[in-house]
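Q&A log
Question type: sequence-to-structure
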Amino acid sequence: MQAVIRAGGKQYIVEKGQTIEIDLVVNDTQKLEFDPLLIIDGDKVSVGAPTVAGAKVTAGYWAR
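Response status: OK
Response body:
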């Protein structure tokens, strides 16, 4: 499964277990949540308007 998320004014294609580096995020927790713009699950594609309803992408957060 892949998803397109928006973070720091950019869009990223992400999948489970992937590590990405994004621009500055101000967050007091160790977990980030994103509303996906698009989800690709095999042959099924869900396109948001502007985001996919009921879906979330969560990620761990650490500062460099």
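Response note: Residues 2-60 form one domain.
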